[in-house]
Amino acid sequence: MRKLLTILIILLTMSVSCIATLVLLVNPNDFRVEMMKQVKKKWAINSILTEICVGMWEHN
């Protein structure tokens, strides 16, 4: 039982660490052009994406 609990705690810690790393290191504005291309390709409409704000990234 103790071994199972240890494994679950390790998996939970690794999951939280991975999510935190993604939030801190990936700026969604770097993918804005690609997102607009995908929207135009899929729905044949022009989209206008302004600054995307996610917690750690500030507005300009």
Write a compact overview of the structure shown.
With 60 residues, the protein is mainly α. It contains two helices and no strands. It has one domain (2-43).
Task: Describe this entry's structure for a reader.
It is a single chain. Helix content is 60%, strand content 0%. It has 60 residues and is mainly α. The chain has one domain (2-43). The termini are far apart. The mean pLDDT is 81.
Uncertain segments are: none
- CA-CA gap between termini: 51 Å
Count of individual beta strands: 0
Helix content class: 55-70%
> What is the helix tally?
2
SSE string, helix = H, strand = E? HH
Strand content: under 5%
- Computed over alpha carbons, the radius of gyration is 18 Å
Instruction: Work out the count of structural domains.
Output: 1
Structural class: mainly alpha
Integer average pLDDT: 81
Largest sheet data: none
Shape: elongated
Descriptive terms for the model:
2 helices; 60 residues; elongated; mainly alpha
How is this fold's topology laid out?
Blueprint lengths: L1 H24 L6 H12 L17
